[in-house]
Amino acid sequence: MFKDKSLIKIKGMGLGKYGIDKIDYLLKNEIKYIEYIAIGEENKDLEAIKKDLKDLDVLFIISEINKGIEEHLLFKVCKMAKDMGILTIALFSTNFDLKKHSKIEKLKKNIDALIISDDKFLDRSFKDTNIFFKTSIRGIADLMTSSRLIGLDYTDIKKILLNSGIITIGVGEAEGENRTLEATQQALKNLSLQKSLNNFEKILLNITTSEDLGLGEVFAIADLVRKKTVENIENLLFSVVKLDDFGERLNITIIATEKKEI
Fold this sequence. Notes:
With about 260 residues, this protein is α/β, with parallel strands linked by helices. Helices cover about 40% and strands about 25% of the residues. It is globular.
């Protein structure tokens, strides 16, 4: 069922000191359509938290996963949100292979999608975790809420992200005569620094510009991304968003889900 973008409710939750610090940064670098919640480690009132989540469509939750009380609360909040039918996306940063960590396997059962920022990747692609988290959240939120010339509605996006496990996000942005190719190649490189490009199951591709793009240009971008990532064109969905205040920039955001292990 189509859902009007103006009715989609999205919140970002910072849980514990680490999460609250990240939420403070996001508040200072506002992303449209998102409200924020700060939950301290001492907050054990799950009923009050549940009220904050009422009628919510999407929850981004930022927290650490290696601190007793905070971690315990994280698992409870994630399970509660998912049981309420909320698309639940968790974000973490790590300097070790958290993807193989037993706690991540436990957490994946209680969320829909997990975005992991590896410190080595940050050194090569983003200035710090704050910028990576902001870019990741904005990329998904813009897909769901911005007016689009071509593309997807909330239901399409939710279907891809629901129970998707670990997702990888690549972003590219360029200006000038060759901006289309440069932005697309940058986004693909961004992805490849995190994971081999042949490890992806499905792709959400978002193109943001202030100008009208011809269908030929849009399909050329989609085809280049598809050839580098997924075998079947049916596994790539794309959207074109027009923002009047975007200047001469063209932004490519690729959101990729992993192939499921057999």
